Amino acid sequence: MDLTAQIVEAITAWLGTVAAQFYAPALGSAGDLLFATPSFDLIPEVAATWELVRNVADGLLLLGATAAGILVMAAGSDARYSAKVLVPRLLIAGIAANASLAACGALIRFENGLVVSFVGTSGTSYVLGQLASVALGPGMTQLLPIALALAAAIVAMLLIVVYIARDLLLLVATVVGPLALVMYSLPQTEEIARLWTRAFSALLFVQVVQALLLRIAVQLLQRTDWLGASSELISGLLLLTLLYVLFKLPFAAYHWAFQRPFMRATPVAELLIAARAMKPVLR
Description:
mainly alpha
């Protein structure tokens, strides 16, 4: 063996060692985080902070009731601001704000149950490990599998970052839930409550879509001849494509939740109209 071949073999062996050190831990950590949403309602510190926010929301609800009374007096024959429209809104907003922690906890447990029904009880880290073994084989002695393993490890680490951010945003959404939901009490601020509902649903249930995708991928990677050919390259690229789609899905959920820029929504304009309507009453 000449010197050039020895150098290439040494570099390949070194890259294989690096890939092995990053690949398995990255996929394992991604599997542990990807489909396990914490039950925030069971964390005492979260519950204590939520109670403080709930108390503020209850105070805002009293202000909302006062504003609703002013709107009823100022609206005249405008059916949008009649008592039969605003009183149910106040009741729904009050109940939703005070029950939001329990509702968020129940939805999180429901979502975790759906995920388990798709990926099984063995854990998603095990499922991702099985996918990796099917896609890249037991060893990485060739340059192509090593390159695919490194790319998969990088995407898996990006997934970890995305889902740490996702869990933090879900925690914040759970805590500020009372403030957002109490905004349903008035038509002028209703969009804030709807925005919170869409954002919380997108953050939470995007994992269900990912779990379904992972279950389908397990079946597809076991038989790649449905593409017309079967090889180590195709299996590795399928795994890399799967990880990339898992990475992009949260961003697609974000675009669905924020369907239009918040500053272009109607609450700002409606608040100005309501302020003009209340001027004669306040004089």
